């Protein structure tokens, strides 16, 4: 069964950091382009970052440039999203997306 599971979300103060993880079962993440999206209440789901395969191309939305880092952990069949200097506007549910499959998301709340 193909499945994606996100983890690592939580409540953090402005300026803090979180590392989100996307774990896959049923397929090998290293052979797919993996994307992180986020959806805030009342807003559309937007791309945050993706890492391509084949190759090593990485793209970030303007909102995360300089603050977010996407990386692969091939040994554990995971992709991480390191988020630094978090802002209240980063509050959203963060989703992993691979090859037509969505995870259920992990909530990130940035609040003092």
Oligomeric state: single chain
Radius of gyration (Å): 13 Å
Strand content: over 45%
SSE string = EEEEEEEEEEE
Structural class: mainly beta
Q: How confident is the prediction overall: mean pLDDT?
A: 96
How would you describe this structure in keywords?
mainly beta, four-stranded antiparallel sheet, 0% helix, globular, seven-stranded mixed sheet, 11 strands, 112 residues
Q: What is this structure's SSE topology?
A:
Elements: E1 3-7, E2 10-12, E3 18-25, E4 34-39, E5 45-51, E6 58-60, E7 68-73, E8 78-83, E9 92-98, E10 101-102, E11 106-110
Parallel strand pairs: 2-11
Antiparallel strand pairs: 1-3, 3-8, 4-5, 4-9, 5-6, 7-8, 9-10, 9-11
Brief rundown of the structure:
Helices cover 0% and strands 52% of the residues. It is mainly beta and 112 residues long.
Structure characterization notes:
With 112 residues, the protein is mainly beta. The chain is 0% helix and 52% strand. Strands 2, 4, 5, 6, 9, 10 and 11 form a seven-stranded mixed β-sheet that branches. The chain has a four-stranded antiparallel β-sheet with strand order 1-3-8-7, with no helix packed on it. The mean pLDDT is 96.
